[in-house]
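Question: Now follow the chain.
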Amino acid sequence: MKISQKKTALSGQKNPPSQANKRSQRSTKVNSVRALSAQIILQVLDQGKSLSALIPELQSQIKPQDLSLLQEICFGICRVLPRLEHIIKKLVDKQLKGKTRIVHCLLLVGLYQILYTRIPPHAAVDEVVNATTPLKSENFRGLINAVLRRFLREQEQILAVVDKNWQTLHPEWFVNKLKKAYPMQAQHNWREIVDANNQKPPMWIRVNQQHCSTENYRTLLLAEQELTSCTDVNPYALRLTQPISVKNLPHFAEGWATVQDVHAQWSSILLEPQNGELILDACAAPGGKTTHILEQAPQAKVIALDVEQNRLNRVTENLQRLQQKAVVICGDATQPDSWIPQAAEELIGKKTDLQFDRILLDAPCSATGVIRRHPDIKWLRQEQDIESLVKLQEKILEALWKKLKPNGILLYATCSLLPEENSQQITAFLAKTPNAQLEQLPFEQAEGEIGKQFFPSEQGGDGFYYAKLKKKNNI
């Protein structure tokens, strides 16, 4: 018999709290980890807010040592959400809507802890039940307790039904797009991509060659018992066998290393920045690409542009940590004439037009290549978003191309897996831009392939796309 949303006899019982309950109640702050997790998940699912924005904003409400658990619960729920939702449907008669949506999210928190963490199941249930107090949902203590304890009793039977068929754990519209772009006979088929997206990502770092060679930094990590693997493809990248706090990375505060995915690191490598050049890093936040450009060409004149001022704060912080200088400017990449004079004044002391030697355009995109790192993307992104993103990418490309010097280089990059944002976008741009020439990239590519598409893999990098364009001088 299913548990109804309505108050049952069980939910009305006032059982004496266990010792675990008493301890939990004594230690509960304004928001317990479970309560805050439920609040965050509610805002992701119902208000379309991202984990990367919510967690930094709200983490002060819990103890610092609880942050890793908060992240594990929130990111984990987004990663396996359809499975958890299916379980709840088996346990609760009536859908929890409106003001009771927070109760639904508490059930998600409880189920995730039971299935995916090492927290003892009964302790996990107690903590979630106690989280109703800071959320002012005490009337649902009995319901939550009954649902979760029933799941503990019937877990094997319930999961046999829920897991009978393989689940993509992705929205249907996105899976359909993957099937069309990467059929089963393709070298990278859609199912492999989905499986990779459902894994936790490895932690990659980029070694600052101004301070230390990659191999010497690996030796430093080994001395700290942080096991790593090198890559024979990217000369700056190291993969840690287990993610760690940046506080444990040797000389991190002094700028010796930066956390950055191995495929994302190719952006600055393929750009090939040179000292003395004027370089634009468009859509620069949070600054990993800007700092890498300056690691390779410390005397380059770099402008870091982004449309969101609050995100530019991260760029400034990263530049300060690495003791680098760049002009950080807030502006719309589709309207370069609105911010170039100000950037010029900061750079050379007078307002004037600028033409760039190189432009790195990490274009706004669906971010479907970094789902394993940001699993909330699956539930934040909507199918109708893709068309508007493609149009925005087109506008930025056309606007910035006009600001590129003859013989200059524009590197187009996205963290998307969708051809309409990547190869199709570049093909369309080349067709209507006579002075644009597609440059060869240093990778194995199929004949006729436009740019390079990287795919997520268990021990590899995230999904990224690159196309390198040169502005011909004779047109």
User: Anything to note?
Assistant: DSSP finds 18 helices and twelve strands in the chain.
